[in-house]
Structures are given as C-alpha cells and as structure tokens.
Hints:
The structure is a single chain. The protein has one helix at residues 30-55, and strands at 63-65, 72-73, 77-82, 85-89, 95-96, 102-111, 121-131, 134-147, 153-164, 170-183, 195-205, 211-223, 231-238, 241-248, 256-260, 266-270. It is mostly beta strands and 272 residues long. The two termini are 13 Å apart.
Amino acid sequence: xxxxxxxxxxxxxxxxxxxxxxxxxxxxxxxxxxxxxxxxxxxxxxxxxxxxxxxxxxxxxxxxxxxxxxxxxxxxxxxxxxxxxxxxxxxxxxxxxxxxxxxxxxxxxxxxxxxxxxxxxxxxxxxxxxxxxxxxxxxxxxxxxxxxxxxxxxxxxxxxxxxxxxxxxxxxxxxxxxxxxxxxxxxxxxxxxxxxxxxxxxxxxxxxxxxxxxxxxxxxxxxxxxxxxxxxxxxxxxxxxxxxxxxxxxxxxxxxxxxxxxxxxxxxxxxx
Length: 272
C-alpha cells in the first residue's frame, strides 16, 4: 500500500462500541496500538535515511526542502559537508517540509565512502532532532554489502534508537534489516525512481515496558516517490498475543493498512 512516511494514527473510528452481549469481542485502542508503535518507529528511521541519502547529493551550504521523493533545493534544511561528515540542520523551530511533516534539529551522517560504494559505512545520529514533535534519538548504521546474486545492491542495517512521542511515552527499537535496492540503482543521479525491499527482525519496547518481537514476514516495499510503505507484512508478538500488520500484498501508493488481531478480526488503519 503506497504513499516512506509512516507515522500511524488511530482514529476513534477504530474503536468498536459493543453492547453487553459482545464483551468478549470488544475492540480497544490497545488492539491496534502494537501496529501504531511499529509504524511510527519503522517509518521514522526510514525517513531519516531518505533525508540522509538526499543530502548526500548536495554541496555544502545548499538547502534541502525534503520530500521522500527527489530533492528540491531551497527549503527546510541546510546541508554542511565536512571530511567524512554531513550535517543536515533543520533549525531550532519547526519547518513544514514538502512531505507535510514538521522537523527541527539536526541529523548527522558520518561515512567512509559514497552510499553506492561497496563496503561503505554510513552512521546516522541526531542532535536534538524532532519529527512532528516526536524526539528521535539513537543510531542507525548502514553498510553497503555489494551486490546480491540478482545484481542488486544491498545493505545491512542496524537500528538502536528511540522515538519519544509528543503525546507521552517512548518507543525503543533494536533491530537488524537487509535493505535491497531493487529499482533505480542504475540511475544514481535520479532518486525519484528508487525502490527498496526491506527484511529483518528485532524487538520494540513500548512505553508501558512491554517488549514486542518484530518479524518482517513479507518484504516491506519502500519507494522514493511515495510517502508510505507500499506493501509488506509484519508480525508483532508478545508471548501468545500477536498482531499481523499488512501494508498491502501488491505495491500501491496509499495511506491504508490492516491489522489482524489474535482473534482473527481485521481492522483498517490509516497512515498519515
């Protein structure tokens, strides 16, 4: 389901009001909040990588008007390049970027080589960085592993980070990913045609302290010309209690996903 963004909102429409005859089947916000926390974390750390990749194309002093699609010069962030380091500074006050998200603070990228070079390592950290007033901390490391058997570049990724939500509470993540560059790797100067497939697993610690096991069971599809994850399926399990988050079976740029509860019920959710 299409359109990288990914901060998941849950409206009151997702709360099903039951009469006394259906207490056992009552649906609560908790039933879909596993998925909300995953989408917030996955989307946020995918976003910062897209921003970092776009910034790598700019010269020092140029500005970045970020949208998950191709870079537009002249907007929210100023990019400064130094030896082995890129600083993307959105300023101290929120700036509304081209993708509609509000950002402030800095993303800092240290690197050993160009993103497309085999063996290069890019490490992303943050300096008082906020997205939609959620504070982002931690580290994301991206290592170019060369090409797979199909000739596609792929990257090993580790994420150890947190999203402190403006509404309260912190979501912490520790996971590993393989990010395969399936389309656009032959047109390095045009990021708008880039498509990736993401696989992997890890854990997510929710604000209430519950630890959720995360497993991508069908690769997440992320396209540079879309604001959301286009397709893919994730399981979120805490002991015997599990959810299945489905962004779509076929890549499509929209803001819809579904959550299948442990009792088999399917709930529609909207991705902002």
